[in-house]
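Entry 12.
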Amino acid sequence: MSLLLSTVILPVRPWREGGRDQWVRAERLGFHTAYTYDHLTWRSFRDRPWFGAIPTLTAAAAATEKMRLGTLVTSPNFRHPVTLAKELMSLDDISGGRITLGIGAGGNGFDATALGQDPWTPRERADRLAEFVPLLDRLLTETEISERGAFYSAEEARNLPGCVQRPRLPFAVAGNGPRGMKLAAAHGQAWVTTGDPKLFDEGTPEQSREAIRGQLGRLDKVCAEIGRASEPMGKILLTGFTPDRNTMLDSVDAFVDFAGRHRELGITEIVIHAPIPDSEFAADEKVFEQIATEGLAQLNG
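Predicted 3D structure (tokens):
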């Protein structure tokens, strides 16, 4: 099974001061997709520059030609399906049909309270995502939508002419719990994991892989319950959050070992962060480029 290699470019550089160059480089290096985080800010970057995901992807669409683009991930924390659908449809048009929407429940970070609301509980986040995703699906596939929900409503919302990609741009749904996996099975063209967060600090690489194996097994079961084969669905691993996060980008060989072991589990796409100095995503730029140009060839050769 061939493995796809993608990257995440965090929106931390002004467009004219290296931001544009990162996206152009990602396409030159041959990454399948370049994603960005869809947050208002994120963790250790709270007091550092951080730009909006949709404008950044729009600019990236104009600066690139073939590489796919997307979010990892968008959440309901500060989004509404009606306005998001209009932006996504427009972005899919501008890019010529190269957009993937990564979507998940979000967390209790800065996004959760930036609009003045109290942070939602995990159950509330799951409840909102369970309403958000189906409505967004309809908004991107149907001509006119009117729907009243507990959290999100649409009144004669129109999205003409629709997405370039038919019936709509693909969804990559993040979720390790039963409800998230059900959404992925019902609406996703791909499923996203970062591994098991319980193993972030104290776990071992072996424990992490076993946890991901278990997640994939549960996804298979959920898909089978609705009569869908999970094999055609993409299985995306967003790296940087597993116990071996600090060593997997040390060398091409280290990455090939990491990626190969996860491909054996059933992962179909590995996503690595473009290096950011003085952050948890600091890495050697030369090794990063070698991984893009040589690592994938070793894996799929």
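Annotation: The two ends are 11 Å apart (CA to CA). Residues 47 and 85 are 30 Å apart (CA to CA).
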